[in-house]
Amino acid sequence: MHYVEHGSGTPVLAVHGWMPDHRLMTGCLEPVFARRPGFRRIYPDLPGMGESPAGSARGSDDLVAALEDLVDDLIGDEPFLLVGESYGGYLARGLVRARPAQVAGLALVCPVGRPVPVLERDVPDHEVLRADPELLESLDPAEAAEYGDIAVVQSAETLARFRADVAPGLAVADRSALQRMLAGWTLSVDPESGPEYRKPALIVCGRQDSATGFAEPYGLLGHYPRASYAVLDRAGHNLQFEQSVLFEALVEEWLDRVVEGSGAVR
Length: 266
Fold this sequence. Notes:
Elements: E1 3-6, E2 10-15, H1 23-33, E3 39-44, H2 60-74, E4 80-85, H3 87-98, E5 103-109, H4 133-137, H5 141-148, H6 156-172, H7 175-181, E6 201-206, H8 215-218, E7 227-232, H9 239-242, H10 244-261
Helix pairs in contact: 1-6, 1-10, 2-3
């Protein structure tokens, strides 16, 4: 599995969502860790995405297994922090289910609640709260659709972040392999079927997120009694750069709680 690594110290494994690659996570987390030394950030490309070949992977069970192999290879039995975005949040919960003692803290960004198709989820309709028609008209139709179909805040700044963090992964994803994996999209073991995860957690959602919403992730709180749950207005599925100041503040506060609650984490 291809990965990018930065820094040294306590490991942080950051798992991107469906179709983008590791740049989704480096774009939003590296500004935080630039202010927080002492963390070794590991950003993998999931199989079939980025530079990681799909191989024989046929669904989410195989992707969690691949993440476990990566942990064994790069982290061993050392405690680590785990961040998952969207579908990556679903896989992260599966990894916590497999290794609850080793994961010292969990952060979920716009996470999938129920592992069902978008049309079956409890999500709001797409709504643009800050429109920039001239910006959209300046784009070619394909980019305008990719960016505009999910943007809640249309601006030169969010377009630049979309181009840097999201679009590169979309361009190289192995879509035929991902189509094959859809049949095995649901994990065979419910991530929340085990004991409660009683370490510091963060669940942050966009109020206007038309992909994963905010209602279904709220239902996860019973399993994560140390979770802060935040719903940010003027934010969709690109919450991390539509509300970057609040997002980074919430991640920093989560890191404070993890460090405070664990002697193994600096």
